[in-house]
TrEMBL record:
NCBIfam families documented for this protein: oadG_fam
Highest taxon of the lineage: Bacteria
Keyword terms: Cell membrane, Membrane, Transmembrane, Transmembrane helix
Protein localization: Cell membrane
One GO biological process term: sodium ion export across plasma membrane
GO molecular function, one term: sodium ion transmembrane transporter activity
The keyword Ion transport is annotated on this UniProt entry: no
Protein name as catalogued: DUF3887 domain-containing protein
Ion transport as UniProt keyword: no
Bilayer-crossing regions: 144-166
C-alpha cells in the first residue's frame, strides 16, 4: 500500500500544471524588488499588518502571500550581509520536487557567488526564496577548523574551571565567614576529696608535736582510770582530724 501511495503522489506531481510564465514573472519581480528596496521600505512592510500586505500583493497580481514575501526579504537581506551587493544572475533551471516546483539560478554578488532558489506550490504561489552562498574548499576547511578549535577550547576551559572549583572546596567555607575554632578553655580546678586528703595529710605531718602532747595526755588519763600497762601500751595516736563545728543550738 505504501508503494501504491508513493506512486500515486508522484503521478499527481507529474500531472500538476504550473503556470511557468507567472512563475518567471514572480521570480523576476522578487529579485528586482529586493535589490531596489531600501531599509525604510523593508521596515514599512515589516510593520504592516498581514491582512493589509496580502491585499496589496493581491492587487499587484503577484501570486505570493505576505508571510512568503517577508521571508524572501529577510533571506535577501541576510544574503547581502554575507555575499555583498547583488550584481546579476544566470538562467533559471526548473525541476519538480517533493516540495513543489523549484527554480534555481547562479547569482553573482560583490564578495562571492551564490545560488538563488524559489519554491512554488501547485497553485503557482511562491512559498519560499533562499540564497545559498558558495564557499571554496579552503574557506570550508577554515570554518570547520575554527569551529573545532572553539568547541574544544570551550570544553577545556569549562573543565579547567570545574577543576579549580573542586580544588577550592577547602577555602570556600572560609570565604563565607565560617566561625573560627575557639581554643578549648582550661578546665577549672575542682577541689575534690583527693585535695582535701592531701591538705589533711599535710596538716598531720606539720602537727607532730601536737600529736605527742595529745597522746601523752590520753595515756595519763588512762593510768588514772586504773587501766593496766598492757592496755596503755597498746594505744597509739596515728592521726588527728578537726571535728566539724556543731550545728546544734542550745
Amino acid at each position: 500500500m505504501l508503494c501504491f501511495t508513493a506512486c500515486g503522489s508522484a503521478q499527481k506531481d507529474d500531472e500538476t500544471e504550473y503556470n511557468e510564465s507567472a512563475i518567471e514573472q514572480t521570480t523576476e519581480f522578487m529579485i528586482q524588488y529586493c535589490t531596489n528596496a531600501d531599509e525604510a521600505m523593508r521596515k514599512e512592510f515589516r510593520n504592516m499588518k498581514e491582512l493589509k500586505l496580502d491585499f496589496q500583493l493581491m492587487q499587484s497580481g503577484i501570486p505570493i502571500t505576505a508571510e512568503s514575501f517577508l521571508g524572501a526579504l529577510n533571506a535577501w537581506e541576510a544574503a547581502e550581509e554575507e555575499c555583498g551587493e547583488y550584481k546579476s544572475h544566470g538562467d533559471f533551471t526548473s525541476e519538480i520536487t517533493n516540495e513543489g516546483y523549484k527554480l534555481s539560478a547562479n547569482a553573482k554578488f560583490a564578495d562571492r557567488e551564490a545560488t538563488i532558489s524559489f519554491i512554488f506550490d501547485d497553485k503557482s504561489y511562491m512559498e519560499s526564496m533562499t540564497v545559498d552562498a558558495k564557499y571554496s574548499m579552503g574557506e570550508i576547511l577554515a570554518k570547520a577548523g575554527m569551529n573545532t578549535v572553539l568547541g574544544m577550547g570551550t570544553v577545556f576551559v569549562v573543565l579547567i574551571f570545574i577543576s579549580f572549583l573542586i580544588s577550592q572546596f577547602k577555602v570556600i567555607p572560609a570565604l563565607f565567614g565560617s566561625k573560627k575554632k575557639e581554643e578549648p578553655a582550661s578546665a577549672p580546678v575542682v577541689s575534690g576529696p583527693s585535695s582535701v586528703l592531701e591538705t589533711v595529710e599535710t596538716q598531720e605531718t606539720d602537727d607532730t608535736e601536737l600529736i605527742a602532747v595529745i597522746a601523752a595526755a590520753i595515756a595519763a588519763a588512762r593510768e588514772e582510770a586504773g587501766m593496766d600497762e598492757a592496755c596503755a601500751g597498746g594505744f597509739f595516736v596515728r592521726s588527728i582530724r578537726r571535728r566539724p563545728a556543731n550545728k546544734w543550738k542550745a
